[in-house]
């Protein structure tokens, strides 16, 4: 009877219903049977959890509510995945049960993980592949990639159901080409499901590693030979630089180890590049550069002196280096004619006159110049270039010199006066001396006799190419005593002319000052002609003629004076002979003298008691 009472009166006013709950959160399943005081049983997936409020086997579970009001609510603390089940509330004595209630437990994914995070390193030029894992989620997490607030597409997504049959693990792989990857970029992996709609994120920083990027500079500019310059090797490297190494022309400079190299440059830097090698963990980068050094000419290929046969070609080769570009000039020493502006000078069919010194000159504008001299020797017949008339003193030792230019040297040199090549024969001795310019053959005669001045001397030289002959005459040389006398006579004559000119100018000036009021008489002017000659028989006749000529000259030269009186000019002048002792000179003849004898004259002008 009692059971039927429970059956007729027990009714659920609250029943559990389906719930979706995130793992870790509490949940309460309601169950209310007012007026029922019998046994209440909670069932999970068909298994009883306990009677009434005794759920000692499930520490997170508890039956809560007012018992007197018939409240048997099931409260679960910190829901777990095991709580994902069907729950029923049963009234045993009343034989009633609630409708089943599905508790769905949502499990957020574990924190996403990017393989290689937090920094993913790759070498420059390589594509980027990123993998993000979002594990143990219910339902499986969705994964997106974000860079600079932009969702990246193209990721490959997959998920795997775990053994518990409820949770899943998700994997997303992102491929980024090398051209789209930059070092320092941050890429985000975001995993989300219903448990965490806002998602969970993981970030990775892209680190692009590369060999050192090197720039080699040099200061100051422009660079002049002999200046101090600084080479700077700037490098960007990831990982960082571990070593610098310098070289010049391939030779390691061991005394320099940093990123700067200071040196005084010379012309070799123009052809021997400076290199800087920078190393990091990935490897090394080597950069080299030729230095644009301004320098004057430096010989690159030195020309050689030549000896060629007459009629052959002579080819000289001369090479210079310089910076800026240089100009080459070939000239023959002593000539201003430019023969070539090329490295090679070619002389076609050379003659003996082409022999000599040639200069290869190089000029670098505004920097410097240099030159190299070479010799051209032309093989040909001898050439004799001696003075054709030579002098000697009678009774003394005399010499005749014969100068011979000959390449190759002469085989024979002969004077046909004695047909003597060398040594001594009678009064004659022949000596041959070689010099840089040629060969001097000297014929020495021990005692010059008059016949030697009448002889023709023949100097002949031979070599393998031919011969040459020179005719030389010997002339008597005046003695030193006679030369001194002649020199003194010439000097005295010049002094006399100067004195006479000065005296004449002075006298004319004084005469004109005293013309007024002065009357000249026969005794006013005195002319002396001094002459000495050993031929007394001719003196009277010639002396009279000369006196007459002198009077005529004086009359013509002094017309104003003579014209002062009616007396004739010839009557106013007297010619007084004066004897002069000593030798007469041959160096002066008056223009009016008709015979080769010498005269000297002195003209004195007298005016009363005054000498003009």
TrEMBL record:
It holds the Pfam family Ig_2. Coiled coil: none annotated. GO terms for biological process: cell-cell adhesion; synapse assembly. InterPro entries: Cell_adhesion_signaling, Ig-like_dom, Ig-like_dom_sf, Ig-like_fold, Ig_I-set, Ig_sub, Ig_sub2. One of its GO terms (cellular component) is cell-cell junction. GO terms for molecular function: cell adhesion molecule binding. The chain crosses the membrane at residues 480-506. It is a single-pass type I membrane protein. Residues 10-104, 112-205, 212-292, 297-377 form the Ig-like domain. Keywords: Cell membrane, Disulfide bond, Glycoprotein, Immunoglobulin domain, Membrane, Repeat, Signal, Transmembrane, Transmembrane helix. It is found in: Cell membrane. The keyword Amino-acid biosynthesis does not apply. Belongs to the immunoglobulin superfamily. This is Kirre like nephrin family adhesion molecule 3. It comes from Scleropages formosus. The lineage of its organism: Eukaryota, Metazoa, Chordata, Craniata, Vertebrata. The gene is KIRREL3.
């Amino acid at each position: 009877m009692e059971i039927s009472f429970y059956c007729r009166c027990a009714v659920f006013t609250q029943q559990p219903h389906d719930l979706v709950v995130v793992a870790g959160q509490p949940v309460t399943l309601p169950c209310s049977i007012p007026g029922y005081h019998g046994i209440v049983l909670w069932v999970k997936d068909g298994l009883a959890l306990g009677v009434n409020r005794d759920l000692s086997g499930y520490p997170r579970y508890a039956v809560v509510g007012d018992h007197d009001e018939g409240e048997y609510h099931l409260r679960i603390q910190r829901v777990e995945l095991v709580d994902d089940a069907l729950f029923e509330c049963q009234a045993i004595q009343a034989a009633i049960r609630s409708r089943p209630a599905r508790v769905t437990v949502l499990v957020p994914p574990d924190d996403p993980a990017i393989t290689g995070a937090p920094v993913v390193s790759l070498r420059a030029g390589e594509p980027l592949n990123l993998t993000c894992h979002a594990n143990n989620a219910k339902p499986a997490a969705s994964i997106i990639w974000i860079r600079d607030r932009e969702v990246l597409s193209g990721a490959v997504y997959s998920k795997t159901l775990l053994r518990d049959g409820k949770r899943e693990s998700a994997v997303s792989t992102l491929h980024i080409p090398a051209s789209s990857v930059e070092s320092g970029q941050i890429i985000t992996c975001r995993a989300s499901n219903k448990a965490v709609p806002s998602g969970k994120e993981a970030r990775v920083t892209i680190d692009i590693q590369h060999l050192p990027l090197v720039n080699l500079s040099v200061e100051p500019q422009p660079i002049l030979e002999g200046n101090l310059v600084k080479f700077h090797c700037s490098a960007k490297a990831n990982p960082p630089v571990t070593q610098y190494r310098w070289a010049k022309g391939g030779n390691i400079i061991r005394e320099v180890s940093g990123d700067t190299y200071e040196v005084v440059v010379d012309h070799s830097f123009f052809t021997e590049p400076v290199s800087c090698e920078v190393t990091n963990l990935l490897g090394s980068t080597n950069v080299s550069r030729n230095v644009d050094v301004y320098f004057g000419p430096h010989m690159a290929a030195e020309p050689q002196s030549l000896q060629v046969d007459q009629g052959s070609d002579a080819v000289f080769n001369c090479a210079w280096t310089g910076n800026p570009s240089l100009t080459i000039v070939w000239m023959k020493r002593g000539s201003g004619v430019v023969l070539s502006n090329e490295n090679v000078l070619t002389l076609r069919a050379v003659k003996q006159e082409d022999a000599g010194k040639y200069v290869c000159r190089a000029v670098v504008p505004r920097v410097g110049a240099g030159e190299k001299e070479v010799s051209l020797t032309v093989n040909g017949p001898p050439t004799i270039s001696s003075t054709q008339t030579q002098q000697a003193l009678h009774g003394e030792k005399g010499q005749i010199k014969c100068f011979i230019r000959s390449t190759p040297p002469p085989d024979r040199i002969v004077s046909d006066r004695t047909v003597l090549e060398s040594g001594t024969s009678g009064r004659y001795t022949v000596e041959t001396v070689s010099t840089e310019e040629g060969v001097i053959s000297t014929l020495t005669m021990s005692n010059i006799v008059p016949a030697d001045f009448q002889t023709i001397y023949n100097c002949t030289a031979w070599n393998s190419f031919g011969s040459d002959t020179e005719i030389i005459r010997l002339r008597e040389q005046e003695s030193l005593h006679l030369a001194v006398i002649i020199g003194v006579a010439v000097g005295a004559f010049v002094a006399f002319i100067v004195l006479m000119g000065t005296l004449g100018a002075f006298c004319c000036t004084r005469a004109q000052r005293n013309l007024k009021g002065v009357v000249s008489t026969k005794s006013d002017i005195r002319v002396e002609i001094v002459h000495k000659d050993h031929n007394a028989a001719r003196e009277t006749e010639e002396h009279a003629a000369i006196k007459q000529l002198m009077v005529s000259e004086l009359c013509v030269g002094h017309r104003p004076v003579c014209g002062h009186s009616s007396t004739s000019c010839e009557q106013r002048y007297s010619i007084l002979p004066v004897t002069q002792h000593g030798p007469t000179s041959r160096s002066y003849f008056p223009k009016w003298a008709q015979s080769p004898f010498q005269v000297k004259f002195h003209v004195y002008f007298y005016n009363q008691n005054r000498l003009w």
